[in-house]
C-alpha cells in the first residue's frame, strides 16, 4: 500500500510540473508574438513610395479675392469668375498661380504670373547603378509642360537637360511672353533669350542662355 501511495504522489507531482511547464510555454509564446519586429516599410522593399496630394490641393475658393492680371497688368482684387470675365475667358481657362509679390493671383501665365505647381511633385531622385560601372549622369525626375491651364507629363525619369530640351528646344518666346514647365520639384521658365529655373515658384535664376539662331538651347549644366 505504501508503494501504491508513493506512486500516486509521484504522478500528482509530475502532472503539476507538466501543467506548469505548458503554462510557461504559452505565456512565452504570447510575449514573443507581441514583441515581434515590425514589418519592413514599403520604401525598403519596393522602392520609394510617394504619397500624392489630393486633387483639390491647388484649387482656390471661387469666392476668394485674388490679385487679378489682364495682359500682364495688375487690375486689382477679383474673384476667379470676375477675373476670367475681364480676361475674356472661361473660369476654367484662367491660370492661377503666384505673382512677383509671392501672392496667389489669377490671369494669363507669363512673366508676372507663375502657374501653381501640380500637387505633390516628387523631388529629383539620384539612381544608383545596379552593378559597378560609370558614375550616374545625375538625378532624374518627371518632366511636365504647362499648357491650356493644365500640367501635362512629357516624360518620366528624365535628366534636367533632357527635360529642358523636350520642353523648349526650337521655340523662342516673344518679348513679354513666357512658357512654363516642371522638372521634378522645380519650375522651368522660357523667356526671351534664356531658360530660367526656380525651386520656390517665385525666385528665378538663369539656367542656360538660348541662341537666337534656330532657337536652339545648349545643354543645361
Question: Helix- and strand-based class?
Answer: alpha+beta
Binned, the helix content reads 10-25%
Strand content: 25-35%
Distance between the termini: 101 Å
Strand order of the largest sheet: 7-6-8-9-10-11
SSE inventory with pairings:
Elements lengths: L1 H33 L7 H5 L19 E5 L2 E6 L1 H8 L7 E5 L4 E4 L5 E3 L25 E7 L2 E9 L1 H9 L10 E5 L2 E6 L2 E5 L6 E5 L12
Parallel strand pairs: 1-4
Antiparallel strand pairs: 1-2, 3-4, 3-5, 6-7, 6-8, 8-9, 9-10, 10-11
Model description:
The chain is of the alpha+beta class. It is 25% helix and 27% strand. It is built from 4 helices and 11 strands, in the order ααββαβββββαββββ. The protein has helices at 2-34, 42-46, 80-87, 160-168, and strands at 66-70, 73-78, 95-99, 104-107, 113-115, 141-147, 150-158, 179-183, 186-191, 194-198, 205-209. The chain has a 6-stranded antiparallel sheet, with helices on one face. Strands 2-1-4-3-5 form a 5-stranded mixed sheet, covered by helices on one side. A hairpin with a 6-residue loop joins strand 10 (194-198) and strand 11. The chain starts with a helix and ends in a 12-residue tail after the last strand. Residues 35-58 have low confidence and may be disordered.
In short:
The protein has 221 residues and is of the alpha+beta class. It contains four helices and eleven strands; from the N terminus they run H-H-E-E-H-E-E-E-E-E-H-E-E-E-E. It has a six-stranded antiparallel sheet with strand order 7-6-8-9-10-11, with helices on one face.
Keywords:
alpha+beta, five-stranded mixed beta sheet, 4 helices
